[in-house]
Write a sequence for this structure.
């Protein structure tokens, strides 16, 4: 199964788009985390799970973004990188941000007053933006994963998985392997 590339977009352009989206996701996720803490601090009375759940979702998203960036960019962490993991995590990001938006909205419908209400509305708007950004990220990650499954190499010719490397065989000699996907 392969995903068609919208408008015959080049792989390098897709990678560039993913990089900009990840930067935007990082900035927006940090802002949601800060806004969630500020909202929790301004609430009066009893706090519910819907009030603090946004902090957990944003912390999870920061860990996922950190994993993806480190395993793609830092050679020391590349061995833990996997297109399959990227695909799964990016699809899960969409689901979690959707749930965060719904749960925050449900919390606002029960109790909305003052500054915490304004912060809640801002959080909902930012999470809707994160949902919109999660769609192309998941789509491109899935298309890369299915491309590797079908063709055996990463679609980006400059990707580190396409560089030849040597595997030590049991006899003590080495053999050259190109484009191996760690699944």
């Amino acid at each position: 199964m392969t995903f068609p590339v919208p408008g015959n977009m080049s792989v390098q352009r897709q990678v560039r788009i993913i990089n900009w989206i990840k930067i935007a996701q990082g900035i927006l996720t940090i802002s949601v985390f800060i806004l969630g803490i500020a909202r929790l601090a301004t609430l009066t009375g009893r706090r519910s799970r819907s009030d603090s759940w946004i902090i957990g979702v944003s912390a999870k998203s920061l860990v996922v973004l950190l994993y993806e960036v480190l395993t793609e960019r830092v050679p020391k962490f590349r061995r833990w990188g996997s297109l399959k993991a990227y695909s799964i995590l990016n699809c899960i990001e969409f689901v979690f941000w959707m749930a965060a938006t719904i749960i925050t909205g449900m919390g606002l419908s029960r109790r909305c007053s003052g500054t915490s209400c304004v912060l809640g509305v801002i959080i909902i708007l930012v999470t809707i933006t994160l949902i919109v950004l999660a769609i192309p990220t998941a789509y491109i990650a899935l298309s890369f994963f299915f491309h590797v499954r079908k063709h055996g190499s990463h679609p980006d010719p400059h990707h580190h998985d396409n560089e030849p490397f040597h595997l030590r065989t049991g006899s003590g000699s080495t053999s050259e392997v190109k484009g191996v996907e760690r699944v």
Observations:
- Residues 8-177 form one domain.
